[in-house]
Q: What sequence folds into this?
């Protein structure tokens, strides 16, 4: 276990319980097409890193012993090699955490600690924030839909205000009530969106339900106003 340059794909197999299938491994030979691993490969697994025990959740340090952050995840490239550690830099108990992708080759194991030679805490924190691609695409769709609802709510509000200004009697009263309801729901949706945006892209899932409920109420008010 010299450095983190070792391919960690085999450790993922160990994490999945491969080491617990000793009878299967002993029945296999190198070059076999049997599902699982060969005897030679099982030795490599045994000598490799355990993702759960040795990597995930472990703190990464600078050479001077300064804490950089904890390993939150590991990324496997399409070529099926673990290439990056996702390190949560800075912050306290998740607050203000800034996830960054660090190449595995830039991290070493020294005296039982994960060390990033040549790095400083501030340098790592200044790296671009890492955001999962699938999560980003999903968030983009969600935000676009919510913003479309808010834009439609504003347009409907302008239309109701125009009609209310020209109306009289019961019609004016009804339009005023619609305007008040629409204004409240529009403000609610905008407030929830502002909260989500303030928290940052990485935490958007925490606000998805509240924003969704607020925009649903807004759509109902819009439908009522257009009826």
A:
């Amino acid at each position: 276990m010299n450095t983190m340059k070792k391919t960690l794909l085999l450790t993922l197999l160990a994490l999945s319980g491969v080491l617990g299938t000793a009878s299967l491994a002993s029945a296999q030979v190198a070059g076999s097409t049997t599902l699982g691993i060969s005897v030679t490969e099982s030795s490599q697994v045994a000598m490799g890193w355990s993702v759960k025990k040795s990597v995930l959740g472990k703190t990464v340090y600078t050479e001077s012993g300064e804490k950089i952050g904890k390993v939150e995840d590991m990324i496997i490239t399409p070529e099926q090699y673990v290439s990056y550690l996702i390190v949560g830099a800075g912050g306290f108990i998740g607050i203000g955490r800034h996830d960054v992708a660090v190449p595995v080759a830039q991290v070493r194991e020294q005296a039982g600690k994960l060390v990033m030679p040549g790095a400083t805490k501030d340098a790592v924190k200044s790296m671009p924030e890492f955001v999962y691609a699938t999560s980003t695409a999903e968030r983009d769709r969600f935000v676009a839909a919510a913003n479309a609802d808010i834009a439609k709510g504003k347009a409907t509000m302008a239309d109701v205000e125009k009609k209310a200004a020209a109306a009289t009697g019961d019609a004016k009263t009804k339009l005023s009530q619609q305007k008040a309801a629409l204004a409240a729901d529009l403000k609610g949706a905008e407030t929830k969106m502002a909260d989500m945006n303030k928290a940052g892209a990485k935490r958007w899932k925490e606000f998805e339900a509240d924003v969704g409920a607020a925009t649903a109420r807004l759509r109902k008010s819009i439908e009522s106003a257009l009826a």
Summary: The first helix runs from residue 9 to 15.
